[in-house]
Amino acid sequence: MKALIAVLPGDGIGPEVVEQGTRLLKAVAERFSHSFELVEAPMGGAAIDLTGSPLPPETLALCQRADAVLLGAVGGPKWDPPAKVRPEQGLLALRKELGLFANLRPVTPVPSLYDTSTLKPEVLRGVDLLVVRELTGGIYFGEKRREEDRAFDACVYTVDEVVRVVRAAAVLARARRKRLTSVDKANVLETSRLWRSVTERIVSEEFPDIELKHMLVDACAMHLIKRPADFDVIVTENMFGDILTDEAAMLSGSIGMLPSASLGANRRGLYEPIHGSAPDIAGRGVANPYGTLLSVAMLLRHSLGLEQEARAVEAAVASSLDAGVLTADLSAPSTRPAGTREVGGSVIDRLGE
Amino acid sequence: MKALIAVLPGDGIGPEVVEQGTRLLKAVAERFSHSFELVEAPMGGAAIDLTGSPLPPETLALCQRADAVLLGAVGGPKWDPPAKVRPEQGLLALRKELGLFANLRPVTPVPSLYDTSTLKPEVLRGVDLLVVRELTGGIYFGEKRREEDRAFDACVYTVDEVVRVVRAAAVLARARRKRLTSVDKANVLETSRLWRSVTERIVSEEFPDIELKHMLVDACAMHLIKRPADFDVIVTENMFGDILTDEAAMLSGSIGMLPSASLGANRRGLYEPIHGSAPDIAGRGVANPYGTLLSVAMLLRHSLGLEQEARAVEAAVASSLDAGVLTADLSAPSTRPAGTREVGGSVIDRLGE
Ligand SMILES: [Mg+2]
Ligand SMILES: [Mg+2]
């Protein structure tokens, strides 16, 4: 197939990890006979320095034309407050312009990295979960007010906002183990009661083959640590998703391992590792690119529909990890850590083994 | 000293665990020459069955007169919806009438129970944290609306609401390791920005000896699993506290171990184990009373000012656990579990060892 992929290296370690992502995309294209056009564009702090804007019109136009967007990371102390134009604004604007309302965060700890997690290996065994977080609604985007002696935030959800993200999550569950856990606080919040009733209706009407469970957010925060292998797909509102995805990230030993995708109504998506721009280690060639390489696998699966290729990438990553090709954040202090490029090469070498 | 303690056994396993709590209070009174008057009253489902109300006026009047309230648990399938009068309403009303705005949940895993946690022993070593949750404000108590196609919840905090709970938490930190972590989402929420600025001011003006750190709620959800021993006292708003206390509870292997206190402007407090009424095991004499016994320690410390007695109870609990006196939720399947009364007796025997 032919595909146009926008590549936004961004800031800090972004360019280093994205370089391995583009190498991998080229290798996948070659091995599976696809034609991927990769076009780079500035984004975040790098774009502010070049153009004054964290999301220049040319970058946005490219992303809107592309089949998928691969992003490294944005931000850094150079553009921290009191700076008014900030790298993160570019990311928010990009999500909004592309209509991305579902954030996907899979967590699948691999046995060779169980040591790096603070959870016991027997708890991690069999964990393969995917959190789908609503990304554009809820209290983060509601009206805010500040008065002399009080502050106010509004949490609003419409039926349509819930419908589309639950539908997206149910489609994903259907391609996995067909189990969906919807997380809310329906015993207290009106938005959660709406969430629960809409979820109930959509799943029973459109996804009778999916097993749906409801769970309160505090119970879910427990369950994620107690029996994480119980989960398949979790779907939840914006703020609960913000908290639970970060908690779930700890099942994997390093956030350097974790990919993410943001999806909208069509197939176009934004793919990025969840680690930030890590300015403290930028430019030293030591950053962990596995999160980016696994984001490439998600890109292949969700935006290009190339399931076989996605699995080949995931298998190559697993094989590379098993072989002990580990960056500094993953390896024991006594062993020689692998560099960023070395990991990229190792995964590419193992592609389609 | 003389003290009046209201004892509300409640429902399910409540009466069984509270019985051990009253035995312990009597033993403490005897050993340390205090005069505790213990008066029982109906509460929750038991009170609904007796009087039609989950918090009868006589029970409330007793609690208002008492120096402290010891509660077991309330609720059970018998009073679940569609029942309109519910046991939990009694608890909410009691908290409100007593003006309890700070919920305290300490988590101090003991080495002899590290096996029962899903976290690795080296992560649990040194964990001794206390979460102080604001209990009467925020989105759980804000205005709620439902329209045809949308739902709405308001989150409001006033300066006064933040001041009083932060002050309570800082006082507690002062008696511990003098470190306070305030958790919010100030990068997004207006209520959190108010929370942060009030906390900053109160601590710098009134508690210059306390080391204050701010942490975002999602980062805290990570940190609690990654390096829980870093925390001393955590203070946070109602909903974040709801989620984080349940997450933190998992550091300890069983929620049967965990005590709680709810405090207000004066010394009167409500003390209860965090486990629920567990109707499935009620009446069989197998429930874990350690959470109640540790709640008694909190009662002695926070409402009666009996620090030495509180420590004696905690030491007796630790000694009993070390000796392997474990209820079924704590013990290996191969060993004979201790019964509820056996644990009570074991702790009393070790009091002041
Ligand atoms: Mg987050
Ligand atoms: Mg809770």
From TrEMBL, chains A, B:
Domain Isopropylmalate dehydrogenase-like: 4-347
Major localization class: cytoplasm
GO molecular function, one term: 3-isopropylmalate dehydrogenase activity
Location(s) in or outside the cell: Cytoplasm
Reaction(s) this enzyme catalyzes, per UniProt: (2R,3S)-3-isopropylmalate + NAD(+) = 4-methyl-2-oxopentanoate + CO2 + NADH
UniProt site (Important for catalysis): 140, 185
Binding site for Mg(2+): 218, 242, 246
InterPro entries, sorted: IsoCit/isopropylmalate_DH_CS, IsoPropMal-DH-like_dom, Isopropylmalate_DH
PANTHER family with a match to the protein in the record: 3-ISOPROPYLMALATE DEHYDROGENASE (PTHR42979:SF1)
Family: Belongs to the isocitrate and isopropylmalate dehydrogenases family. LeuB type 1 subfamily.
Role: Catalyzes the oxidation of 3-carboxy-2-hydroxy-4-methylpentanoate (3-isopropylmalate) to 3-carboxy-4-methyl-2-oxopentanoate. The product decarboxylates to 4-methyl-2 oxopentanoate.
Xref: HAMAP family: LeuB_type1 (MF_01033)
Name of the molecule in the record: 3-isopropylmalate dehydrogenase
UniProt source species: Archangium minus
Name of the gene this protein is made from: leuB
